[in-house]
Target: PTS system, glucitol/sorbitol-specific IIC component
Amino acid sequence: MDLLAHLATGFIALFQKGGTVFAGLVTGIIPTLVVLITAVNSLIGLVGEEKVNNIAKMCTGNIILRYTIFPVIAVFFLTNPICYSFGRFLPEKYKPAFQDASISFVHPITGLFPHANSAELFVWMGISQGITTLGLPLGELAVRYFITGVIVILMRGIITEKATLYMFRKNGISVD
Model:
């Protein structure tokens, strides 16, 4: 009988913990995301969706810009996780690669622009503490992280785009 009571207590504790996490989200990141989404949509409405789409087309018409400048702008201005919403300006066939590039850039930007992904700041702070202990400059490391990140997101974007287009064609999905 004690085992059953213990299992029942543990079972309900699992859901209580889930409720606590949910309450934290409701009072933490969800309001921030709602305000950010509202602000971005308002800005797009003020500037005009056609103008914003034209700017996005300039940034995404070229494969190099699509997986360097576009994700960097998204992560810098919208931060993680709302930066992924920039995918709305892309044709469906490019969205998986943009998502891959953006996700891959949320850490390398942190050294120069901590606001872009404050959740990853603890990683940067741990690395920077070691570098500082060695008496080495942090600025050079941050710039190297950033540049390496841009190179990596370009490679990942291109590879993911090619793989996505291959899978679309293989499954008979029109990509044009």
User: Anything to note?
Assistant: The CA atoms of residues 101 and 153 lie 5 Å apart. The chain is about 75% helix and 0% strand. Residues 49-171 form one domain. The longest helix spans residues 138-170.
